Amino acid sequence: MSKGKQIQSVKGMHDILPEDQPWREFVFKKAKTILEGYDYERIETPVLEETELFERGVGEGTDIVEKEMFSFKTRGGDPVTMRPEGTAPVARAYIEHGMRSLPQPVKLYYFEPMFRHEQPQAGRYREFWHIGAEQFGEASFSADAELIFILWKIFEELDLKNEVTLKINSLGDRNCRPDYKKALKDYFKNKLKKVCAPCRAKFKKNVLRMLDCIQTECKEISAKAPQIFDFLDDDCKLHFKNVLEFLEEAQVPYILNPYLVRGLDYYTRTVFEIWLEENGDSIQLAAGGRYDYLAEELGSQKTEAAGWAIGLERLIDLLKKKGIKVPKTRPEPKIFLAQLGDLAKKRSLILFEHFRKAGIPLKASLTRDSIKSQLRIANRLGTRFTLILGQREALDGNIILRDMESSVQETLPLDGIVEAIKKRLKEK
RNA sequence: GUGGGCGUAGCUCAAUUGGUAGAGCGCCGCUCUGUGGCAGCGGAGGUUUUUACGGGUUCGAGCCCCGUCGCCCACCCCA
User: Fold this and answer.
1) Length A196 CA → B18 C1' (Å)
2) According to a count of CB atoms within 10 Å of the terminal CB, is the N or C end of chain A lower?
3) Which residues of chain A between 249 and 288 are close to nucleic strand B, CB under 7 A?
4) C-alpha torsion angle, residues A147, A303, A58, A120 (rounded to 10)
5) Hits for CB < 7 Å against strand B across A residues 314-333
6) Where are the alpha helices (DSSP H) in A177-215?
7) Alpha-carbon distances, residue A271 vs A7, A22, A137, A240, A256 (angstroms)
8) A7 CA → B19 C1’, Å
9) What contacts 24+ positions apart, CB below 8 Å, involve A409-418?
């Protein structure tokens, strides 16, 4: 019984307690209102997907797929993975349900937990939530623009826009990115001795990633590296220009960052991130971009698409740090129901239901028998009134209403008590 | 995967050089036979194999040693 260690939640995974709910609901509601205002519809996908979805979608060379997935085999032997990100599953759902036959674009959003087997630390968990938005079937810059605009609106309406910065870049597409990659390779080829070991590995696997290395030596070298802007073909250049012009028009402040690449393989053209930067530390709060080839990678027809995701926990951490107050999740009950004696107890249960139907939540402690302990609880809970239903009152068809502040009591008929209380609450 | 700090009651934390595991808060009760807040007193709670778990050293371990797990922080990477 007491042998061995105590059972606790799995490493990096946390209970979401009642006290956490107001923050989550506050953010969910804000995001939902804005997203639905732009005609995005909610989708939920399963926690488990075929492992291959992420291998093909996210990319086999990525850290996520290589070492961070919760993967296992079902009893039937099928390799499955707990989703480490939301885009590939939503794209899979879009394809699987033939959403390309709907009027395009199709706009979807989700609130879902993601799973990554990483070493937990501040703002990084093995189970964490994403608020995500995806738009399929829209090749025009308008999709990128709208998504970034909505993302910015969410931060704005959470009163966080002055805390964060939006960084943006273009990665080109199949047509022009290879040229850029080649140019990068040529540039770094004879400088490999000077860069850090991880960067040497990136040189082989994905040169682009060498650009966002933060080692000072590597930074110095990549500062003189060829820039993507010089390699974008005309279409990509125009697309990017349009996105930027829209942001200026919409007064969304952004920082052009030619070293912004992303860890996931599926991105093309526009990529962007939202960062919180304070005293040298920086935390990524959201990220996204365009991914025109993902559907193809998943074996469907080419479907242009774009999307983003916000890290919920990081966002809430920031709200708390800023001291932003959030509303209570539910109305705090103002009435405590105390009961004394068997008949009263039975009648209380029915009373409870009458109040519930009238939309007046009650607190009570039906397991406690003494009036004293019930009142003490009422006091601690801070309810404005206490209804006391004793044996005597139950027999006479009455009930006592006690004002907890003034300690004034009055006896009221049990009949119509719900209405009487309703009136009383309105007066106060 | 790597490095550092930490792990004592539900919570916050004590416990001289290794020498009887404690306090505050919270919880429950009594003083107060059907009436809360304040106060006083008491109780439960670390399972007599109690200090995350398992070993070791010692007459004796919360404290020293080894291992494991977990938490926090950082790297890597990411949201």
Assistant:
1) 48
2) N
3) 262-264, 273, 281-287
4) 20
5) 314
6) 177-189, 197-205
7) 42, 32, 18, 10, 11
8) 33
9) A414/A347, A414/A351, A414/A389, A417/A351, A417/A387, A418/A354, A418/A355, A418/A358, A418/A360
pTM (2 decimals)? 0.90
B/e letters for A228-244, b = 16+ CB within 10 Å, e = fewer, are beebbeeebbebbebbb
Confidence (pLDDT) at A196: 77
pLDDT digit string (tens) for A132-147? 999 999 999 999 999 9
> Rounded to the nearest 10 degrees, what angle do helices A21-37 and A141-157 cross at?
140
Q: Which nucleotides of B are covered by protein (CB under 7 A)?
A: 1-3, 27-30, 32, 34-37, 47, 49, 52-54, 69-79
CB count within 10 Å of CB A175 equals 13
- Mean pLDDT for the stretch of residues A163-171: 94
Compute the mean pLDDT over every residue in chain A, rounded to the nearest whole number: 90
Distance A309 CA to B57 C1' (A): 55
List CB contacts of A185: < 8 A, sequence separation 6 or more.
A203, A207
How far is it, in rounded angstroms, from Cα A55 to Cα A57?
6
Which residues of A in 198-237 have their CB below 7 Å from strand B's atoms? 198, 202, 209, 212-215
Please name the amino acid found at residue A301. Q
**How many residues belong to chain A?**
428
Residue A300 has pLDDT above 90, yes or no: yes
Q: Which nucleotide is nearest to A281 (CA to C1')?
A: B74
The answer to which of A71-75, A95-99, A377-381, A399-403 has the lowest mean pLDDT is A377-381
Rounded to 5°, the CA angle A375-A379-A383 comes to 105
**H or E element at residue A292:** none
Is residue A36's pLDDT more than 50? yes
- In the structure, how far is the CA atom of residue A119 from the C1' atom of nucleotide B58, in angstroms? 38
